[in-house]
Amino acid sequence: MLIWIYDDKKIKYKNEFGLNLCMFFTNLVMHFSCIATIRNGINMMKFVVYHSDEFANPVMAFSLGLGLVLGNLLCASTNVNESLKQPNVISVISKFVGFKLLI
Fold first, then answer.
1. Residue 74 CB contacts under 8 Å (≥ 6 apart), including other chains
2. Is the residue at 7 inside a domain?
3. Cβ contact 18:89 at 8 Å
4. Single pTM value for the model
5. pLDDT for residue 6 is more than 80
6. What span, in angstroms and rounded, lies between the C-alpha atoms of 13 and 72?
7. Is residue 23 within 8 Å of 92, Cβ to Cβ?
8. Most buried residue, 5, 47, 59, 78, by most Cβ within 10 Å?
9. Domain of 80?
10. How far apart are CA 59 and CA 50, in angstroms?
11. Does 80 fall in a domain?
12. What is the pLDDT of residues 36-79, one digit of tens each?
């Protein structure tokens, strides 16, 4: 707490306010849209665990749910990483729209 109070350094933002705000809201919307798909994959894996006798190959069904979860997490983290590299608002929005079209 004392270091924070008596520190001489000022907070510097890497990007301008509008760009940071655009990155925040596009990543927030992307998170909310991916979370439903990830929840479906988790529910699929949970159903396989509790009702494995209803499947001819429960390992494959579980693997499909796991692939759905991991694929969405990979795509979401890749989109966040790419949007943080963009220099202006237009490119952030275009990367986000491209990601949404893929999903």
1. none
2. no
3. yes
4. 0.72
5. no
6. 30
7. yes
8. 47
9. 15-102
10. 13
11. yes
12. 899 999 999 999 999 999 999 999 999 999 999 999 999 888 88
Total structural domains in the chain? 1
DSSP string, 8-71: -PPP--SS-HHHHHHHHHHHHHHHHHHHHHHHHHHHHHHHHHHTGGG-S-HHHHHHHHHHHHHH
Structure confidence by residue, pLDDT tens digits, 74-101: 988 888 888 888 888 898 888 888 887 8
The confidence band for 11, taking pLDDT boundaries of 50, 70 and 90, is: low
Look up residue 88 and give its DSSP letter.
Answer: S
**Cβ atoms of 37 and 72 closer than 8 Å:** yes
Res 87: pLDDT: 87
Quick one: tokens of 6? Answer: 């008596």
- Dist. CA 82–CA 85, nearest whole Å: 5
Centre a 10 Å sphere on the Cβ of residue 32 and count the other Cβ atoms it contains: 9
13, two tokens: 């933002």
**If you average pLDDT over residues 31-38, what whole number do you get?**
88
